[in-house]
Design goal:
By secondary structure, the protein is mostly helical. Helix content is about 50%, strand content about 10%. The chain has four helices and two strands. It has a two-stranded parallel ribbon with strand order 1-2.
């Protein structure tokens, strides 16, 4: 029962391939036109058989649905890394954590020394650049 079906499929396949080859002549189209249509316009026909015309309405040129294109910012969409960095930065300014240069908190002074060291290193790098003539 399966053999006649397989035989029929094998006999039909070459005819389909010949018909397909005759329609396209084995050549890709010579020209492809992509046109954005304004509301009310119709897609123009191809000038010849070796041309493909692709038309898209200009009111929806994107594949992303309109409601997702310009999603408003919400804190819920912010990553945890950014949240932690923001909290850490605000805490350092307010003097709540070690490493901040503040009189507030038990380890607020530790950041003052760190800031002085960073400032000294920046001045030293600038002095070396000035000596060499860099900008």
């Amino acid at each position: 029962m399966l053999r006649p079906l397989i035989t029929a499929v094998l006999l039909v396949l070459p005819t389909v391939a010949v018909a397909q080859d005759a329609a396209t002549h084995g050549q890709p189209p010579e020209r492809i036109r992509s046109i954005l249509l304004k509301p009310g316009e119709k897609c123009p026909p191809a000038a010849n058989e070796n041309e493909v015309v692709v038309c898209a309405p200009s009111e929806t040129p994107y594949r992303i649905p309109r409601q997702f294109r310009a999603a408003p910012y919400s804190p819920a969409s912010n990553s945890w890394v950014n949240r932690v960095e923001t909290i850490d930065q605000v805490s350092r300014v307010n003097g709540a954590v070690p490493g901040s240069c503040s009189v507030v908190g038990s380890a607020g002074f530790s950041g003052c020394v760190q800031q002085m060291i960073q400032q000294w290193a920046a001045e030293r790098r600038q002095a070396k650049k000035d000596a060499v003539g860099e900008r």
